[in-house]
Amino acid sequence: MKTIQRFSTSAIAIAVLLGMSACADMSTQQKDMAIGAGAGALVGGVLTGGSTLGVVGGAAVGGVIGHEVGKNK
To answer: What are the two backbone dihedrals, phi and then psi, of residue 6, each rounded to the nearest 5 degrees?
Structure first.
């Protein structure tokens, strides 16, 4: 079981690093929205014990908050 968890964690880390390389051409507002969505998904997953609805809901709320914060920059 621990092998699967380690593999999953490594795969997610690699996917995040590859995904962040696409952020070079993004505006500040888009970057803030992406960061907010990622943070919201993380918090939503932690608060709901990893439920899909919690992760997706957290990502949506975090994305909206990041979008609004990025407007002021």
So the answer is: -65, -40
